[in-house]
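The material for today's practical consists of a large collection of protein records. Getting from the letters to the tokens is the skill we practise here. To make this concrete, we reproduce a full record directly below:
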Amino acid sequence: MAEPTNTPYPPSTPVPASTPRSSSPAPPIPSLTPDATTTTIPLRPSSSSAKPIVLHIGDPIKYNPSTYAEFSSRFEVIRPSAAERERSAFAQALREQRWGDFSAIFRPFWGTGGEMGRWDAELISLLPDSVKVFASAGAGFDWADTKLFGERGIIYCNSGLAAAEAVADFAVAMIISTFRHLPWCIGAATLSATSTDTDAAKTFRTCHAQATAASHNPRGHTLGLIGFGNIGQQIAAKLGNPAFGMPIAYHDVVRKPAEIETSLGATFHPTLSDLLAVSDCIVLCTPASPDGKPLITSATLAACKPGSRFVNIARGSLVDEDALADALESGQISAAALDVHADEPNVHPRLLRMAGLDGSRPGRVMLTCHNAGGTVETHVGFEELSMRNIMAVLAGEAAITPVNLHFLAKT
């Protein structure tokens, strides 16, 4: 899951191995009951307050007023205006120490709060030494240098746990699409409904007749998961036995406990190439690459089983989209589904042509607009989990969903 329109998409933050470490099983998220009440947050701290200061970037909270009541009783919350969050103004405010010695940064929504751009050395160096935690909505963190945060002693917490079910549900639809060629079916039906051209009827009949020969049931086909954290495990639970009957294979930086593998019928592969060689459908569900470079390249695609399928619900920057287009054109990859893109909001033109949206050619690529985690329930969880992470860390307790503790250990 990840960051849409107002957040940049730079190369991923490096992590120590092929996929980032994730805790399994995940801890529960407390109290995620939706409530549409919007709470107004004060824009300036009280000069007489002795409470720790939290810098809230982005929109006011919307869904969890009872948790916010607890949150604001513990902390002095400052919410800079949108103008103050623009990068140059934001950096200047940090230099001026306009918001004092704040202890935490709180970004509860992924659609706002990213106006200052990438959290890199320029911004992180301006933070006061008092900052202990940055808690953000979203699962992806390639817009923040989590290594540098860790070296400064700042725990970065994402909210991927809150989005796991929504992303996994969406992934199921995309995986089915690669087996049943849904872009072709949808494009042909849409053309026949919107055009009076006699070719439209022919397109419908052609798809009806020929898509059958290209489609397969997922059952019995091996599902290869790159990353086996919360999202990967939920995908496995939904598509393995007894539901869809797909054998589950996975690769991750750390092998999961035997009880998790047994319960999900999952087989661990120590290298990515081993996983690709046995997978009929590969799903990328890891938030970062080991070196900030694409994880899916011409070399990795060449290691795939000929005619296998590819799904990306992770980060667009993890895929060399030219290489993917080449693999689709050659038939090395038979179908693909992409929810995230390397240059959002722009979609790779060759992949767009392969979607067959006009019904004139068989569509082999499903394309969506970074929608996988986008549900009301996810937003409720983002907001709640971000507050809970800050309350835990500033109380001297363990963070719920940290991603950079391995960098703190080196300080």
The two ends are 29 Å apart (CA to CA). The chain has two domains: 53-162+376-408, 164-367. Residues 160-180 form the longest helix (21 residues).
